[in-house]
Amino acid sequence: MNEVILYDYWRSSASYRVRIALCLLGIPYRTEPIDLVAGMHKSPEFRERNPQGLVPALQIDGVLLTQSLAIIEYLDETHKGADFLPNDAVGRQHVRALSHVIAMDIHPVCNLGVVGNVMKMAEAHGDDPTEIRLAWMRKYIAEGLNAFERLLDPANSGGFCHGDRPSMADICLIPQVFNAKRWGVDIGGLNAVNRIAERCLAMDAFARAHPDLCPR
Amino acid sequence: MNEVILYDYWRSSASYRVRIALCLLGIPYRTEPIDLVAGMHKSPEFRERNPQGLVPALQIDGVLLTQSLAIIEYLDETHKGADFLPNDAVGRQHVRALSHVIAMDIHPVCNLGVVGNVMKMAEAHGDDPTEIRLAWMRKYIAEGLNAFERLLDPANSGGFCHGDRPSMADICLIPQVFNAKRWGVDIGGLNAVNRIAERCLAMDAFARAHPDLCPR
Questions:
Q1: Backbone torsions φ then ψ of B144, nearest 5 degrees
Q2: Which positions are tagged coiled coil (chains A, B) (predicted)?
Q3: What share of chain B is helix, strand, coil (3-state, %, to 5)?
Q4: Residues A52-58: what's their mean pLDDT?
Q5: pLDDT tens-digit series, residues B92-144
Q6: Could you tell me which residue, A40 or A65, shows the higher pLDDT?
Q7: Cis peptide before A56 (omega within 30 of 0)
């Protein structure tokens, strides 16, 4: 089998998702760190690989894959027993919808480039850009995770977002909870989210994917 | 069969995607217009249905589904011959990645709420909010569609984003091209995007889903 390479940035929550999926499947991989703050994603070498210049990108099975959720669906389809999505169509729809609440409605709005643009606007007017950033992050993360909590099925007692094993929704949730803590978002009232996060973080695969353990 | 109801807003490109999918499948549906500009999505009645307060939401098969791409995947799985995703795992990954370039990296950043927030910031400083909005839209739509063009497989001569029939990627592309035109983004140089758009727009299903034909 050819080497699996993850183009990764430790603080990217999209990368964090793919790390969790790889760890849950026990797929060995080598990390190629792409330092977003240093602008490595804009280098011609990396753009040659991924024209979008985004992480994560995953070299696997002879192809380079981009977009975290599309990568996770690929890993699910190509690894029997991954079960990142449930067996029934309505269940799969629910897991994908939960995943998209985070991956579409929170994450892109809080992404480094977008927030950097907002900070530049603030700075041009003499506002403190770090204050503006903090308010921006807190607003979108809080709104999004509140909606996520309400979309969880109250009848689900499986201990995870959907059923009794980690799905793509849990894979999306954990990096977002990490980000919420990083930005000081008060999510103490989100009982289901906190219960699920505690359960996931106790699992070895989630622990090994943690940003603090990433090669930089 | 129970009535299919689409909670829709004519100008929402996420709604437009689901309209295209329903039209491609020939599924009859009733539109329940949710006027985002009038704030109807924030009403308690609608929040009761969809806690996120977003369109589209689709009532079908006895359940209410949210999140446009998760709805489209559901329709694909439950309707034989939909073929919104190709048969091979690498092909499916490519179609999903293309779809996510639009649905994650362009659309959420240009969404009414986020742009409204940016406009408020501009206004507070005496800037012209409509100018700021225009620059914001043009920047993110242009960058995103340029990346989309480069991610299309140059060896694909099928006439659509992937292969020789409309996939989820085409379903995402057409509303984004509509938006690009609305905001005066110059996409004249994106040859593949323009060729695909022309081909899709000549199809009856894409034509019937157009915003101008929506009940309001």
A1: -65, -45
A2: none
A3: 55, 5, 35
A4: 88
A5: 999 999 999 999 999 999 988 899 988 988 888 888 999 999 999 999 999 99
A6: A65
A7: yes
**Domain residue ranges of chain A, discontinuous segments joined by +:** 5-82, 89-208
- How far does the CA of residue A173 sit from the closest CA of chain B (Å)? 16
ipTM: 0.95
Mark yes or no for CB contact A52/B122 under 8 Å.
no
The three-class DSSP label of residue B130 is helix
The 10s digit of each residue's pLDDT in B175-206 is 999 999 999 999 999 999 999 999 999 999 99
| Minimum-distance CB partner of A51 among B53, B73, B147 | B147
In the predicted structure, residue A53 carries a pLDDT above the cut 90? no
Distance CA A47, CA A200 (A): 34
C-beta of residue B115 within 8 angstroms of C-beta of residue B137: yes
Contacts A–B by Cβ distance under 8 A: 116
Q: Which of A108-112, B126-130, B161-165 has the highest mean pLDDT?
A: B161-165
- The percent of residues above 90 in pLDDT, for chain A, comes to 76
**Cα(A47)–Cα(B146) distance, integer angstroms:** 13
Q: B89-208 in CATH: which number? A: 1.20.1050.10
Write out the H or E segment, with its range, that includes residue A58.
strand A57-60
| Chain A residues in contact with B104 (beta carbon < 8 A) | 67, 69, 103-104, 107-108
Closest by alpha carbon to B183, among B109, B120, B127, B126? B109
Q: Is the pLDDT of residue A63 over 80?
A: yes
Residue type at B115 in one-letter notation: V
How far apart are the C-alpha atoms of A185 and A182, rounded to whole Å?
8
Query: Closest to A77 (Cβ–Cβ): which among B89, B103, B147?
Result: B89
pLDDT, tens digit (0-9, with 9 covering 90-100), for B141-160: 999 999 999 999 888 878 99
The DSSP symbol for A213 reads G
What is the rounded end-to-end Cα distance, in angstroms, of chain B? 25
Cβ pair B39, B46 in contact under 8 A: no
Domain A5-82 has CATH 3.40.30.10: yes
What sign results for the dihedral spanned by CA atoms A26, A31, A36, A41? negative
Q: Which two tokens stand for residue A98?
A: 């939960």
Q: What are the residues whose beta carbons fall under 8 Å from the beta carbon of B103, sequence distance 6 or more?
A: A100, A104, B14, B17, B68, B69, B172
